[in-house]
Amino acid sequence: MAAAPVWSVDPRTGKQREQVAVEATAQEVDAAVRAAHEARGALADRAVRAAFLRTAAQRLEDAKDTLIEVADAESALGPVRLTGELARTCFQLRAFAGIVDEGAFLDVVINHPDDTTVPPTPDLRRYKVPLGVVAVYSASNFPFAFSVAGGDTASALAAGCPVVVKSHPDHPALSELVAKVLRRAAAEHGVPEGVLGLVHGFEAGVELVKHPLVAAAGFTGSVRGGRALFDAAAARPVPIPFHGELGSLNPVVVTEAAAEERAEAIGTGLAGSMTMGVGQFCTKPGFVLAPAGEAGDRLLKSLVDGVSDTDAGVLLDHRMRDHFLAGIEERTRLADVESPVTPGAGGEHTVSAGFLTVPASRLTAEGAYDVLIEECFGPVTVVARYESPEEVTAVLSRLPGNLTATLHLSEAEGAGEGRGAELLAELTPLAGRVLVNGWPTGVAVAPSQHHGGPYPATTSTSTSVGGTAIERWLRPVAYQGVPEALLPVELRDANEAGVPRRFDGRLER
Amino acid sequence: MAAAPVWSVDPRTGKQREQVAVEATAQEVDAAVRAAHEARGALADRAVRAAFLRTAAQRLEDAKDTLIEVADAESALGPVRLTGELARTCFQLRAFAGIVDEGAFLDVVINHPDDTTVPPTPDLRRYKVPLGVVAVYSASNFPFAFSVAGGDTASALAAGCPVVVKSHPDHPALSELVAKVLRRAAAEHGVPEGVLGLVHGFEAGVELVKHPLVAAAGFTGSVRGGRALFDAAAARPVPIPFHGELGSLNPVVVTEAAAEERAEAIGTGLAGSMTMGVGQFCTKPGFVLAPAGEAGDRLLKSLVDGVSDTDAGVLLDHRMRDHFLAGIEERTRLADVESPVTPGAGGEHTVSAGFLTVPASRLTAEGAYDVLIEECFGPVTVVARYESPEEVTAVLSRLPGNLTATLHLSEAEGAGEGRGAELLAELTPLAGRVLVNGWPTGVAVAPSQHHGGPYPATTSTSTSVGGTAIERWLRPVAYQGVPEALLPVELRDANEAGVPRRFDGRLER
Lengths: 509, 509
Known about the structure:
Domain Aldehyde dehydrogenase (chains A, B): 8-412
EC number (chains A, B): 1.2.1.26
Oligomer: homodimer
Protein name (chains A, B): 2,5-dioxovalerate dehydrogenase
Mean pLDDT of chain A: 97
Shape of chain A: globular
InterPro entries (chains A, B): Ald_DH/histidinol_DH (IPR016161), Ald_DH_C (IPR016163), Ald_DH_N (IPR016162), Aldehyde_DH_dom (IPR015590), Aldehyde_DH_Superfamily (IPR050740), ALDH_KGSADH (IPR044151)
Helix content of chain A: 25-40%
GO molecular function, one term (chains A, B): 2,5-dioxovalerate dehydrogenase (NADP+) activity
Radius of gyration of chain A: 24 Å
């Protein structure tokens, strides 16, 4: 049987651009994983890792023009957005280089012998070691920042783990280009090119998560695909951590007082956030609790204006377009669901933005309306109009886990009056990031970031963005009674490595 | 159908002592979980949690005489060992109270707005929140320290998570007593007694891990039982973290030079460690690579003497005794396996310690001898005699994951000569704790401890002993743009809570 071809497709036309590769066989997946495994020793030196990450960023910037052109041809995301995303990707690689240099991620804890504890403590020194080869399943909607050189790869390499990427079929040509850049950057530092493997094909992805030498996986994508791989990871003879970012509704609550104070600004802001990138952000606000009544009406009017002003856009692929249109069809069929601006097919290859409204009372109990509290990928949001604070609480209690939850408060509520604190406490169990008076799209690459949340937002308690994403690829090891001469340098008393640590109970910078 | 009775059994006689309870029905499990869930708000205040943990320790000490008597009657572990274990348990509760006070476990990271990052960083503040109700599956072999008031419970309560314990059938009477003590301690601080639930019965344990309000689980026990619960946790509509400690061989490598230097001391130390607690420690050294030849022979002679001097002992229950005897039978049947001291039935209710030897060459490839590199719970170890360093490497590469791995080196090797560093590097991938010139039994409750390891030692990268065990029951939440008045006190600029944190990149104590 001939190997299945992998085509690069232009979503603006639906036409094949070029054949990029063929789908990897099980043997080819095995070869990629083994090559990555063999490369792990070259990543043991933290200085090499940091230098490799910085060079990778530089070489991606060097190749910027070509990369943006190919990325745009495959994703239709446009050069402006893609230029920003590439800059973010390079910033992220350098940020992880800084994290590798600092060494706080090693979580060094040292205890000297202590007879006052029960039982007595021997000489015991703990830090974290890399898990091994990491499988990265890249996303469609961020061809740079959540793909071959994205946050999963950057954090895994920073941790000392080689990576095998399962490319996303929406940008195979870009994936090949980026992988080549990373491999060349590795070679510049004496790291074998096998440290970054790339495989194409659905079956290859399944083989990858089952491979005995794969020690952990990172995934960004759909609930269906992510859950299938999560299940495969858990069913292995030796189960492995599976850090999947699957799906998120990203609820927004607008209080009555906030709507009274600035309905128009909220409506306009919502329109901008939900249509950004043709509604293809995992943090798109997909569900809004807005008050019934006059202030809420004003909010909706601004939303109508904002959404109507948005140009039709091209989704990442035609399958997504079909799903989007089917999702709209399914939702608008429900009684009491209205669409002040109906989302739909803009043209043969585009979609137009819109939004739906529903009385919040339809959502306080399980039933057919539950489809409205499921993610619909694309430029649409659902506005549920509530009559009372109790209705808000009732609907919130029924929401699945989310990456983000957003609260719009009045000035007085923000200062502590009214139900602000109560609502914040109600939103916290629902999400990994809680915002006040902002919009969830746009995810900063910061040490304080948490891009994750209760299932199905993520399959673990980890983040895929920000400095702590490195924690996913490490495990602790404690050394007991190991002579100084044999200890890793980070665990010796003298701290020549200069890493932050907990030394006999004291935190040392 | 009448509810199944739960009996307390005396392992010294195999006779039922008393009926303690009945097995919990699904409705009773549901009630326990709901009561725990309702109690979560009472744990929100860190000061209350710390005080509750300290009072729990005090009240357990107050009830010491009764607790030790019942524990000994159900476990046959003897008052000396049990007194030490209770002291350890109370030390652990107080250690977690200290951790709650300090607040480092909250992992506070604060970033103020910063336009120099790509993309720009908003006001973003992260800390960790409790996951919710934790299911604790207690162990047979530590009726205090890994049971109702053990490390899983202590760390979960410290994190702010209510607990429902599935009691171990080997000590149901003690479990009821300890649960009562903890509940009364909770009540002293205004925490509802439902904060600590207790259920009996195998089916109740399965119901518990599937309950929608259970947010995570901790388990200590067998590979078979732990894997079944792990699978159930992963198969839930909303999967939950399952931190299971399942099984461990705890390999020991004795170098030729070490054996030449102190064969007798190593043999005697090994005999003590492998027979401690009738070989019922999860860290029992169950597999030893010792050199062939004269020095190794001397080591074995000491081991014969040490093991022969050990009294026959009572295992925790008769099922374990049956498994132990069957395990010995299966292993001694293999050609080339010898038993210088044959482990076996000491009397009607006891077992006697012993050990087996095998040429290491039998273990360098998959086959019938693989049973020798599986855990056999009880007072037995397997000594594989190696002919060359290459044979050691070949056997190590075939071992499953372990809680511990131990290396015995000569003085010169400890100082950096010879293969010491190389062997340490070979052992590190195999275990969560690596020892030099010590014995793995005895697990200190220290911040630097790591009691966990590659599967099947644990089902996650976490520890069940030591300060970082608290991390298992928390998840991060980032707050973006939240006004000061609504922020948790730990996330405000002023740091009135005095918690260690990362503040705009700087680590602050």
